[in-house]
Design brief:
single chain, 42% strand, 4-stranded antiparallel beta sheet, 3-stranded antiparallel beta sheet, mainly beta
Length: 86
């Protein structure tokens, strides 16, 4: 399903936040427009319109993924240096 806001994932990020994966907490600044994976691996993400996490495997280092995530779960996440783009 495409985003409701035109250009949502194509506009530059206005600010960045380091992400600490957590068992239950959402991202502290709400839904992000993308995630930068500093050191590659697996990431367990709860997308904007989901209630359960999905494990994305083998994400590459230094890649920005245009995923509207509301949480990054610690269980299953092996990637490091994750940054949320807002």
């Amino acid at each position: 399903m495409p985003p409701n806001t035109p250009g949502y994932t194509t506009q530059s990020a206005g600010y960045l936040r380091a992400v600490t994966p957590h068992a239950t907490d959402p991202l502290p600044d709400g839904v992000c427009r993308g995630l930068l994976i500093g050191t590659g691996g697996n990431v367990s993400i709860v997308a904007e319109n989901d209630t359960d996490p999905v494990l994305l495997k083998n994400l590459g280092s230094g890649v920005i993924y245009p995923i509207k995530a509301k949480a990054v779960r610690i269980s299953g996440t092996t990637a490091n240096d994750i940054v949320a783009l807002y």
